[in-house]
Amino acid sequence: MNFFKDILRGAMIGVANIIPGVSGGTMMVSMGVYDKIIWAINHIFKEFKSSVKTLLPYGIGMLASIAGLSFCITYFFERFPLQTAFLFIGLIFGGLPVIFGGLKGKKANAGAALLFAVFFALVILLQIFGGEQGVERELAVNAKEMGILLIMGVITSATMIIPGVSGSMVLMALGYYAPIIAQIRSFIESLTAFDIDGLLKGFAILIPFGIGVLAGILLVARLIEFLLKRYPLYTYSGILGLVIASPVAVLMGIGVGAVSVLAVIVSVFTFAIGFVAAFFLSK
């Protein structure tokens, strides 16, 4: 049962990672598994068996959701932006008790309040100044492009693992979001059609990006584990600021304009579904 729940949690994290403005790190916190995943990443070499056992179901869920939803997630955000956004806002709010649990027994002070405010503002500013689509890049199979993709992977994963910061939004601002999502779709289509040329191109583009992602995760996870151990009050206060700002950033990202009464009613239901799902999965 726990293995299946962890796959579902991983699927939620994977979906969050491919949606600009939504943070995979925030979803890890909302699912109540942030500390556990960080620990497993940092001990992957020292306690290999235990770490792999912890990370495997999350990895399965993330890969499955990224592969499957790379085909349809943009459709839902384009056709039903408010309803889809409120599903993720419900997921974020449903996990807040986990963060408050990390602050339990710790006396707040001016430094913690300042960190909360600073990180809250950081998410909003990133959405204001980084949410626009950059010049879209052409992905070519050559040494220079593979080196750039490696660096993009490091940058993206470093932002993906930090709660409140959207790795997809960073990719979008740099002009690599749409090409990489398109390449994932193309790779899956080539795999099902046994298109060798398409598979080789996919490997040449996605492998360096994937290596960069893994390297970035390992580097940032070590920093976050150190901060959680040495400065738990300040770290959780910063995380809380990032997470509380995330719903605002999501709504800013979709650019909510005129909405119908029906859309609002459905959004209330999708919020409730997200909240209940996060609350259940964070147990």
Summarize it.
The protein is an all-alpha fold. Helices cover 80% and strands 0% of the residues.
Order of helices and strands: HHHHHHHHHHHHHH
**What is the CA-atom radius of gyration, in angstroms?**
19 Å
Measured by DSSP, the beta-strand proportion falls in under 5%
Number of helical regions: 14
Distance from N terminus to C terminus (CA atoms, Å) equals 12 Å
Shape: globular
In oligomeric terms, what are we looking at? single chain
Unreliable segments of 5+ consecutive residues: none
Helix content: over 70%
Largest sheet data: none
What is the number of E strands? Answer: 0
Helical/strand content category: mainly alpha
Tell me, rounded to a whole number, the average pLDDT: 78
Topology overview:
Elements: H1 2-18, H2 24-30, H3 34-42, H4 48-69, H5 73-79, H6 81-94, H7 96-103, H8 110-130, H9 143-160, H10 167-174, H11 177-193, H12 196-230, H13 232-254, H14 261-281
Helix pairs in contact: 1-2, 1-4, 2-6, 3-4, 3-12, 5-6, 6-13, 6-14, 7-13, 8-13, 9-10, 9-12, 11-12, 12-13
Care to describe what's here?
There is one protein chain. With 283 residues, the chain is mainly alpha-helical. 80% of the residues lie in helices and 0% in strands. The chain contains 14 helices and no strands. It has helices spanning 2-18, 24-30, 34-42, 48-69, 73-79, 81-94, 96-103, 110-130, 143-160, 167-174, 177-193, 196-230, 232-254, 261-281. α9 (143-160) packs antiparallel against α10.
Which features characterize this protein?
mainly alpha, 283 residues, 14 helices, 0% strand
